[in-house]
Each structure stands twice: as structure tokens, then as C-alpha cells.
Amino acid sequence: EAGVVQSPRYKIIEKKQPVAFWCNPISGHNTLYWYLQNLGQGPELLIRYENEEAVDDSQLPKDRFSAERLKGVDSTLKIQPAELGDSAVYLCASSLDRWLAGGNNTGELFFGEGSRLTVL
Amino acid sequence: EDQVTQSPEALRLQEGESSSLNCSYTVSGLRGLFWYRQDPGKGPEFLFTLYSAGEEKEKERLKATLTKKESFLHITAPKPEDSATYLCAVFGRTYKYIFGTGTRLKVLA
Known about the structure:
The structure holds 2 protein chains of 2 kinds.
Chain A: E1 5-7, E2 10-13, E3 19-24, E4 31-37, E5 44-50, E6 53-56, E7 65-68, E8 75-79, E9 88-95, E10 110-111, E11 115-119
Parallel strand pairs in A: 2-11
Antiparallel strand pairs in A: 1-3, 3-8, 4-5, 4-9, 5-6, 7-8, 9-10, 9-11
Chain B: E1 3-7, E2 10-14, E3 19-26, E4 32-38, E5 45-50, E6 56-59, E7 62-66, E8 70-75, E9 84-91, E10 97-99, E11 103-108
Parallel strand pairs in B: 2-11
Antiparallel strand pairs in B: 1-3, 3-8, 4-5, 4-9, 6-7, 7-8, 9-10, 9-11
């Protein structure tokens, strides 16, 4: 079974330039997450989708960040314009239906390998 | 506010030297506590879910335990390939995964 696929793996841009990251979740996973991970920190949620709907975007800096999930499958995260402080790893994750304790659903997140952004 | 604190920040062990990593948490309505392993340049990889105090899970040299305030990840006779960052996360009534900052483990041969 293919895992979560992200691209590009690495991106170096000048400040004020735009950048976009793409994520293809595991087939059948209706929930998709974008996380930000700074060096030495844990992942922090940017946005969560359930199917096509962004159900939690409270931590997304909407002045420069945008995201979409067309047809409830692939997702794109965009930054425009990028700032120096945006240098980080952007992780995409997917999971099965909304978290349910017990049963066969362990509630685990399946992460991609991440997209490392460097803003110069 | 849900919160996770992991200690120590970094740990160096000799191969075969057992130890424990700590995850202290406060959460409203715990539904699950998670342990992940993250290798450099990779995304986190799931290890365990613990649902309630008193529960234990084991996988090879790793054993996770849970109380009402903290979780421990015990590593027995570690090997160099166990070197990684170990992340703890909680999921509660807010329906958000809250991650700690991780413990960087280095096992020396």
C-alpha cells in the first residue's frame, strides 16, 4: 500500500516569492492534515480537512497561507509571499474516519516525508 | 489548554543500556495518547496508542505505559538503530492532536 506522498521534498526560494506544496494521502483516508514542524519542535497543526471541507484552519495564517483539497483527495498548501520565518518542514498526514476510541482504528496519523522549505 | 511536555530533550545511551522517556500531559477528555518515532528527514512513524490509565503496549524493545498524568516509553537493551526522535501526542475533547517537542535518542555502539 502506497503511503502519503508529498512533493517537492526540498524547496529553496527568495523571500516574497510564492511556493506550493502538494500532498496525496493514502487511498480511502478522508481526513487530511497539514502540519508545520520547526527544527527541534513537534508538529503543529495548520489545517485539517474532512473530505473537501476545512474543518479546522484556526492556526493557518490566512494573510499569506492558503490550502485546498479538491475532490476530497489531493491537497495543495500555498504560501504567498514567503517570509524568512516560514523556513520549516511542512508535513502532510492522513487518517481514517474521525477519531474513534477502540475498535480497529488506532487513531494513528500516517505522515508523508515532508517538504523542507528554505526561504533566503 | 491541552499540553504535552517531554523529557529529557536528549538522551545518549550505550548499546544495551535500558532507560525511559517521559511524556507528561494535561488534556481535556483524553481519547488517546500516541507515541511516534521520527528519523532525520522523515515524517513521524506511528508506534503505539494508549487509551486509558494502566494500559501497556509493547513492540520489540519498546514498551509504553500510561497513567492519568504521564506516559513512559521504556527502551530495553537498545541498539544503535533505535536512535531517533520519539514524539508523544495526545488527542482529547478538542479533536486535535497536540504533540510534544520530542526526545532525541542516540544509542552508541
